[in-house]
Amino acid sequence: MVKTWFITGTSTGLGRLLTERLLARGDRVVATLRKPGALDGLLAQHGDSLQVLTLDVTDTGAMRIAVADAFARMGRIDVVVSNAGYGLFGAAEEASDAQIERQIATNLVGSIQFIRTVLPHLRAQGGGRIVQVSSEGGQIAYPNFSLYHATKWGIEGFVESVAKEVAPFGIDFLIVEPGPTCTNFAEGMDRAPPMPCYEDTPAGEVRRAIASGAFAIKGDAARTVDAMIVAADAKAAPLRLALGSTAYASISQALAERLRQLEAQKAVTLSADREV
Ligand SMILES: NC(=O)c1ccc[n+]([C@@H]2O[C@H](COP(=O)([O-])OP(=O)(O)OC[C@H]3O[C@@H](n4cnc5c(N)ncnc54)[C@H](OP(=O)(O)O)[C@@H]3O)[C@@H](O)[C@H]2O)c1
């Protein structure tokens, strides 16, 4: 069955590959991006099944218009993908206020407003699926990515709550959590100017590992996108899907450690209840 998709952030990386893969198998895609012209080649090839709209996800007003327009033109949209995002790199006190605001406005508020914008349309059509591209960094944390983690942990909490609100309307969610993956992500990163005092700290180590190429990027973008499509096609999608061996190892280790810490504090934790 031909499906219709709406995807944000399709000029490069996972969003673009996803658009290409879906068109190649015959699906219809509304692809949104900030750079008009970036998908001209695909438009020439798949003009009938591809609609390209300009959208910066920090512009909520424009987003509402683009989404309403897409639902009106397509009739039904089966899967919406909240993919647009980038990384802010640097220790928390190295980042400027403006860098922090843009990171949160794009990855967190942009994703929240996108989901809020599509919900009434999905309810009106009797249901649908929302794919939120998060990251292994939505469940674990590396030094130097604190603001990025704040956005990915934040969107995962938002989605987990909203999923419970809208399940009765036939709307479900798939949170995708790739590990480091070969896309344009490194080039698109916003880098805070380093402070010398962090040179000999874990933040400095991560900075050096990334600069020297020692930080392994094991994720294959095409395989990541293929796994996303399989999960998005499934009758019942998992709420969370980690992708890649790095994500699997880091998330399983972090969850085990969190459970260990919870159990280690159990007596203190339970002592906080009211006496009855
Ligand atoms: N690659 C990884 O290692 C990795 C791992 C885990 C999660 N992720 C997540 O995967 C998603 C896609 O990233 P990617 O790896 O494919 O990197 P990418 O190649 O840099 O793609 C990011 C896309 O997001 C778009 N974007 C950024 N800010 C935007 C805004 N304000 N409005 C609209 N579009 C915007 C970019 O558009 P422009 O071309 O206009 O900048 C680009 O199309 C992101 O949410 C990222 O956090 C990536």
UniProtKB/TrEMBL annotation:
Matching CDD domains: 17beta-HSD-like_SDR_c (cd05374)
TM region positions: none
One term of GO molecular function: oxidoreductase activity
UniProt keywords, alphabetically: Oxidoreductase
Pfam families for the chain: adh_short
Entry keyword annotation includes Thylakoid: no
InterPro entries recorded: NAD(P)-bd_dom_sf (IPR036291), SDR_fam (IPR002347), SDR_oxidoreductase (IPR051911)
Family: Belongs to the short-chain dehydrogenases/reductases (SDR) family.
Protein name: Short-chain dehydrogenase
Organism (species): Pollutimonas bauzanensis
